[in-house]
Write a structure and sequence with these properties.
411 residues; mainly alpha; Serine Threonine Protein Phosphatase 5, Tetratricopeptide repeat; two-stranded antiparallel ribbon; 25 helices; 4 strands; 51% helix
Length: 411
Amino acid sequence: MLASVVLLYASCAKRRTSSPRTYGSRAPLAPIRRAIAADAGWVNTAGGPMGMPPLVAVTHSRLIAEQDFAPRLLACAELLLTNGADANCAWTNPKSPDPPQSALYGAAGRTHNAAMTTLLLAAGANPDDEESLYHSVETSDSTCMRLLLRAGARVTGTNALGRVLDFDRLDDLDFMLQHGGDPNERPWVHHAILRGRSMDHIRALVDAGADVRTVDADGVSLYRCAQAHGRPDVVAMLVAAGVEEPLSEEEQFVGACARGDEAAARGIAARIPDILTRLSAKQLQTMPELAAIGNLIGVRTMLALGWPLEVKSAWDATALNHAVFFGDAAITELLLAHGADWRARHAYRDNVMGTLSFASQDEVMDPPTPRDHVACARVLLAHGMPLPDGRQYTFSTDVTEFFDAQRGEAG
């Protein structure tokens, strides 16, 4: 009954209104009113094919992004809350059972709707639901994140600070640091480097009190991390702060490659011909890490020095998978030209075709360079990847159209 009532309400005659309250008294609310009249407890009863409480169904609906549907869904939520719906009700998604997804998560973390988020917070929704703040940053509009933080959402323990560093949004990082974000909760400056964030992001963390002498989970210092990822700007900041460490030949080699200093890297390789075999597994992962942040010159230098192509990092993915994920056609072309294998599998038990499928449809990621999955698809086909089976994979509209055109030409 739940799903049918909510969908009936949301799909009623498309009228526009200035506010949910104005629309709330009109006929489309009648099915909701009748359900409440028949059973006052219905407002907190899970039901329908998804087993959701009514308020969760309303706040999770992406129809709110449509101009005609937004006021109706807001009026629906207001009516439910007025009649006793629990502002903190939640739903366990069978596809992702832990943790439960709250009504607030639907508004702030899924649909990113400020009006719905405001309504729920005013009704007593707890901003500390373990999910809403983290996912609220996954949009270019930071309004919901700011609403949650102003309402007292706790930053520590949510990984939200790490999530905001996944995006190039310095103002959002500053706001989170000003509202309880702890730059020392985890080695967040290391994370910022791994995500290719700017020097301004690094300084924001340091100015907020980040310990420049900290080490990450692998015992790697910030100084060594900056060297390994080709960040002379960060190194200079650390040296100015009195943080400088002697580097081994292996560390010097990785750093030279990462910053694109091929002459220095070759000089070390000439002295130590087996330098690549002496690198640790962590050091070898630097190439896929650089591919993930668009460091073309670093990847090119590593390939010129004979770096192994199939090293994996993060989600057990090769540099090629990272490049395709972020739609970096230049690095994709470079890796394939050096013999990278598109069939190499990653942690999700698929190859680069699956990576292209997922990434081309993903609207959340914020790559360091403008993404172009069509260009990646073109490069992959040119280097031997077959046209994908349309029954197994789906792609974004532009990538699908490209593949369809290639099938037409082949036919």
